[in-house]
Design goal:
Layout: H1 57-64
């Protein structure tokens, strides 16, 4: 430690002070509320009567499993 930081009083160093530029002002908020109308819904009802077909339960199990 003694090698890098010698004992004794430190010499006065010159201090440079340079002020930063003034910050740019933020733009004023617009505070605009946008309300959209509800989109029109289109409902299509289409029923198809496909009928009922008789089937064997054992054939169903063989085809589709349990």
């Amino acid at each position: 430690m003694e090698r890098w930081i010698p004992y004794g009083p430190q010499a006065k160093r010159r201090t440079l002070v340079q002020r930063a530029a003034a910050p740019l002002p933020y733009p004023a908020p617009r505070n605009v509320i946008i309300q959209y109308e509800q989109a029109p819904a289109r409902i299509v009802r289409n029923f198809q009567r496909l009928g009922v077909t008789a089937a064997s339960p054992s054939a169903y199990v063989q085809t589709y499993g349990l």
